Every structure is written in C-alpha cells, then in structure tokens.
Amino acid sequence: MPAISIVDLRKSYGDVKAVDGISLEIEEREIFGILGPNGAGKTTTLEMVETLREPDSGRITVVGLDVQAEARAVKEMIGVQLQTTVFFDQLTVRETIDLFGAFYPRTLPVADLLKLAELGEKADSRVNELSGGQQKRLSIALALVNDPRMVFLDEPTTGLDPQARRRIWEIIRHLRDQDKTVVITTHYIEEAESLCDRVAIMDHGGIIALGTPRELVNEHVSESVISFRLTPPVGEEVVRELHGVTSVQADNGDYRVTTPVPQETLIGIVAMAYEQGAEADDINMKKATLEDVFLKLTGRRIRS
Amino acid sequence: MSKFHKMFVYNLKMTLRQREALFWMFLFPVLLMIILGLVFGSSGEMRMKIGVVDLDGSPASRAIVRGIVKAFEGTPEIEISTGTEEVERAALKDGNRNGILIIPAGFGQAVTEGEKGEVTMIINRSELSTAQIASSTLRGIVGRISQGMSGAPELITVNEEAAQDVKDFEYIDFMVPGILAMVVMFGGLAGYSLEIATYREKGILRRIKVSPLSLSTFLSSGIASVLIFTLLQTALLIAVGMLLFHLKIHGNYFCLALLVLVGALSFLSLGFLIASMTRNSRSAGMASQAIAMPMMFLSGIFFPLQFVPSVLKVIARCLPLYYLGDALREVMVDSAGLASVWLDLAVLMGVGAVSFFAAVRFFRWE
Q1: Above pLDDT 90, what percent of chain A?
Q2: B251-273 mean pLDDT
Q3: Of A52, A91, A105, which is closest to B206 when you measure between CB atoms?
Q4: pTM to 2 decimals?
Q5: Would you call B212 and A51 a contact, using CB atoms and an 8 Å cutoff?
Q6: Which chain B residues contact residue A86 at CB under 8 A?
Q7: A138 touches chain B (CB under 8 A)
Q8: What fold does the segment set B48-162 form as a domain?
Q9: How many Å apart are CA A214 and CA A211, to the nearest integer?
Q10: For FRET with A67, which of A122, A124, B45, B360 sits at 20 to 30 Å CA-CA?
Q11: Closest residue in chain B to residue A67, using alpha carbons only
Q12: Is the Cβ–Cβ distance between A197 and A188 less than 8 Å?
C-alpha cells in the first residue's frame, strides 16, 4: 500500500484551476519532492493532503485512510510544517514545543525534539529571538511533536542561506532514516536533486514530470553543455569533429558545445588543444539539471 | 482536560509576559479611577449635617430649637438644619444628614409639668467614622439644653433609633461600577477580537486546524484566561477603591463576580464576532475601538444619565454596556440581588448568544 495515494485531485479558486487533475502515489520511507514555480499548485496540493483544504473533486488517502472522511485520524498521524512559520511570541522554544504537544494525544519528549532540531542551546530563548534557520528548524520540530509517520514540509528552506539549508537537509535525511515518509515542496533545483528520492514537477496545477531526479534528467535532457576558451582560436569545424559533440557555438575563441557523453568530449577537447598547439582554459562542464528539464518541458525557468 | 489545562496555563503565561497589555489591563483602569475620584470625588472635608425636627411646636420646644441653632452658629463643622419630619428623614436616607433629632409632640407639656421629656435621635450609621461623632454631638446638644433648662441632666431622655436603608452615596460609588464595566468591555471586545484576528493573520489558526485539537478547546482556553484576568482586574479596582476612596460595596460579592463573568462572556462574544467579520488584525483593532469608545461615553457608566438630554438616554439604553454598568451599580450600591437585575442579565446574555452564533457563522480560519 502506498503511503499516500492521490486520484484525480482538483481545486479551483474562481476561474483559476489551482490544482487540475493530479494523480500521484507516494511510497513509504521516501523523501518526495514537489518542484515547481510559485503558483504552480504545490502548496494547494499539499494542503489538501494535510486536511487543511477541501478538494473540489478527487480522492486522497493516507495509509488507506480517506483524508476527508477520517480527517481526525489522519491529523493524528501526520506532521505539518506550514509555509509561514507560526509561533506565540511570548513563549520560549521549549514552551512552544510543549504547548504544541498538547494538541496531540501522543507526543515525543521535548528534549528529543530539541536535540533533533539542534535547538538545545536555544531551548529557553523566546521564539522571536531565533534566526530564520532556527525558526524553520523549530517549525520542523513542531511538525514532529506527535512522532508522525508522515511529515509534510512546505518550502522548508525558503529564504535560508546555503549553510542553514544544508542543516535542514540533514534533519530531513535523518527523518527518512527513522522510517518516516517526507513530502516537501520546493522551488530550489538543488534541493530537489540532492535531497529528494523522487520528484514531481508541477506547472499550472498539473504534474508535468515524475521520477527520480536522474531519471528525469536522462529522459528529458540527454545532453550536457561544455564551454571553454582556446588561444589562439581554432576552426569551428575542428571542434565539431570531436567525439560526441552535437552542436557548436563559437565566438572569437569562446566555444560552447553540447554532448550526450560529456566526459569523453572533455578528454577530446583537451587532446585537440594539445595537438593544435592552443591553450585551453575556462573549461566549464555543466551537467543537465531539473531546471533544464523544466525549461525543456515548459520553455520557462522555474525561478524567473 | 489536560490539553485544556496546559493551554490555559500557557495563555495566562503569555498574557503575563505582555507588559503593555498588563499596563492597559491593570494600571490604566486604576489610574483612571484615581484621577476621576480625585477630580470629581468627595471634597474630603469633615462636615456634620444635623437635622432638627420640632413636632411639638410648644414654646419650650421652639426655645430648644432656637438654642441649638444658635449654639452652633460659630462652628462651620456642624451644620444644623430644621424641617418637617418627612424632609429630614428623606435627607437622612439620601445620605445628606449625619443624624436627626426629633422633638415629639407633647414634649413641652411634659417638661412644664416637671416630667421627663423624651427626644429621639436617628443616626446615619452607614458612615461609621461620622456616626460616632454624630451620636455624641447630638447627645451633647441634648445634655446642654436639658441642663440649661433645669440644671439637672436627667430631665430629657434620649431614645436612639437606628436609621433604616440609609444611602450614603458618593461619586466613587457611582464611578467604580462604571470603570468595572469599562474594563470588562475592553477585555472582551478589544482584547479578544484582536487576539483572534492576530492568530488568524499569523496562521496560528491554520496550524490548529491541521492538528487534532478542536477549535473550541483552543478558543475556550483563551476565554478562560481572559475571564481570570477580568476577575483580577475587578478585585484590584475594588481594593484600590476601598483603600483610597472608602468605596463601600453593599451587595453580595458572588453576585458581583457572576455579573462580571456574564458581562465578560457577552463582550467576548462580541469581540469574537468583530474578529470574524474583519479582514485582519488592524481592521479588527480599529473596528473594536470604533465600537468600544463611543459605547464607553454614551452608556452613562461614568456620569449619571439623569443629567443628559433624553436622546442620549435612549441611545444609552441601546448599548449593552449600559446594562452591565446598571447591573453592577445595582448590586454594588443598592445591594440588589440577581433577581432584581434580571433585565440587565437577560440583555447581556442575549447580546452574547446572538453575537456568538453570528461569529461562528462568519468565522474564517484564514
């Protein structure tokens, strides 16, 4: 049985189809990412799964429980971090965790959650004294207060610097190691690629691609891009002859080639430069990413 | 229950940690009371007002009355007035006399026949500090007269009669119920509506919605905390009133507490309704002020309505605060029981119930 099953889910606001017929299965013990630009319908989808919004049509089950018919049982089993972090300003970190624990019949010890969210030193600070990263970690701790089987994190790292982001990724990986199913939404390519086991790419309320990051890249964008500089320049046709090269752009010694076999092409470039007596530098190999997948599928970038 | 209890305790904690809110809850009403009490309160001077009633009309009794009036002409602390029995008794009842001396019919005849004359004195005992003085002053007066007449102090017997239902009414007694009503209204109307609207705006209500906790548990723990603070505010105001202005509460404290709670629940419902009808915390704050401020001035909680134009009297009777102020005053000053303030209670509960159901109807999570 899948952890979460979504069948033909729809939700409109007036004329806007926020979620337009999504079907999806999320397995247990995976980190599942919903990637897409703002307004793609990620949060609306997540909030319908979390029982926070009523779908217009479609069916969602969480470990077999219908989220509308058995909302209370579902609520007890899931942990939720909403997109905006919400706390009571007058309470400390420890008190906040203790208070949110009172919402649930079964809770983890406050000390365990403080440790997991790496907030032990800040336990007795007021919540409004926390940094952005600490606040996000606290809201993850609150999502885990009932030791949920399923954790939903809506943009868990938005607005954080790379270091703070990586700390949160570590926490999320740790959750998977504890046999929890984690669903996140994100518009960060890097987050989806390095953190998620599987990714659904959403645009305009629909899923336009689904799979592991590697599968998606291999399936939709077969080629990588290598750019380099040669002094003195060589003829464009020499570059075109290199192994694997499918296209060449040359501009007064600056070259940009595409290739499905980037490693072999790279060796060819270095060898050719040596033979031609040219000096090769500024060599840059850019592997295809989910951004390229999105670009290929929609003609737009995720973050514009 | 443990959920409710924990949330209730945290609600109390959160309120206690808001310095500014504490100022408005506790210090501001006390300061307001002190200022109003000092500006409009009793002048504070000790002045004895004693009424003399001559029911006999004999030469002897008239001589006594003249003698008394003359005796105190030079002492401004003691004011002697003469009048009919009804007038003087009414004045005593309204707290305008500290005591009255009644010379009964037949007094003159008894004295001229060498028998003992009897006079009656009635002391206003509601003002304990002056009652003692009034009593001894009157006895002194009588003693002097009787000595002047015969040289023997035993000639006149003094019968003392306890005054019934004496009202010792001062501005402070009028004002404190008004301030209590104001505090109850602001706590419910302004404080609570702002709290709910802020919770909604910050997304705390959504966070509650996504947890198994019911909204009613969440809201009721907050309400319980508001009620506790309202009772504390009431107690503090009464204590300060007693200490500084000799405030007297004639009614039952349980009735008073019950009225405060009913009033608070009524205004909490109204605050809840405001929160449900407004878009964000800013507009909720402005809406509640726009309702609370005029209500405070128009419902006659600070000044008796008998001095205002009749249009304003009608307006006042349309405002729930009027009924809370009225009920509190009835209990505190006239020692009324709950039965005699049934109309006030009914209006408050009605307003509370209607606004509660409307608030639930219009409630929004986000």
Answers
A1: 74
A2: 93
A3: A52
A4: 0.75
A5: no
A6: 202-204, 206-207
A7: no
A8: abc type-2 transporter like fold (3.40.1710)
A9: 8
A10: B360
A11: B210
A12: no
Beta strands in B15-146 (DSSP E): 48-54, 78-82, 99-103, 117-123
Contacts of B10 in chain A (CB under 8 A): 88, 91, 95, 99
Interface test with A, best of B8, B195, B202, B207 (most A CBs within 10 A): B207
Query: For an interface test with B, which of A49, A62, A96, A99 has the most B Cβ atoms less than 10 Å from its Cβ?
Result: A99
| The one-letter amino acid at A206 | G
| Exposure letters B78-114 (e unless 16+ CB within 10 A, then b) | bebbbbeeeebbebbbebbbbbbbbbbeebbebbeee
Q: Please compute the mean of the pLDDT values over residues A160-184 and round it to a whole number.
A: 94
Q: Please name the fold of domain A223-287.
A: Alpha-Beta Plaits (3.30.70)
Q: What is the average pLDDT across B221-245?
A: 92
Q: What is the token pair recorded at B58? A: 């004999």
Tens-place pLDDT, residues A268-277: 999 999 998 9
Residue A97, both tokens: 């965790």
**Per-residue confidence band for B126, with pLDDT thresholds at 50, 70 and 90:** low
Are domains A4-218 and A223-287 of this chain identical in fold? no
* Correct CATH for A4-218 of 3.40.50.300, 1.10.3980.10, 3.30.413.10, 3.90.1640.10: 3.40.50.300
Residues 10 to 29 of B: which have CB under 8 A from any A CB?
10, 13-14, 17-18
Residue A5: helix, strand or coil by DSSP?
strand
Residue spans of the domains in chain A: they are 4-218, 223-287
- Indicate yes or no: CB of A98 within 8 angstroms of CB of B6: yes
Per-residue confidence (pLDDT) for residue B46, from 0 to 100: 54
Break chain B into its structural domains and give their ranges.
2-41+170-362, 48-162
Q: In this predicted structure, what is the pLDDT of residue B44? A: 46
* Band of pLDDT at residue B150, cut at 50, 70 and 90: low
